[in-house]
């Protein structure tokens, strides 16, 4: 039987997955970078797994742009090299 992954993650879950602190995840949420919802009487934050995956994809895209604009060692980015960053184009 396949394990079903939860649709929503706590900020601590997201922090574990990204290998950052819960405070950093909270800052991403409060800053509007990572979509989340506040639920329950105590207002606990939850991040939808799909939203986290979209955020990660956006960060890969931003990183590709940064690398293209700031090549390592000042060398130009070889043609076609961006296709191989982050698992292909």
List the helices and strands and how they pair.
Layout: E1 8-9, H1 11-18, H2 22-30, E2 37-39, E3 44-48, H3 49-69
Antiparallel strand pairs: 1-3, 2-3
Helix pairs in contact: 1-2
Write up what this structure looks like.
With 89 residues, the chain is of the alpha+beta class. The protein has one domain (8-77): Multidrug-efflux Transporter Regulator, Chain: A, Domain 2 (Orthogonal Bundle). 43% of the residues lie in helices and 11% in strands. The protein is built from three helices and three strands, in the order βααββα. A three-stranded antiparallel β-sheet has the order 1-3-2. A hairpin with a 4-residue loop joins strand 2 and strand 3 (44-48). Helix 1 packs across helix 2 (22-30). The longest helix is centred in the middle third of the chain and has 21 residues, at 49-69. The protein is elongated. The two termini are 34 Å apart.
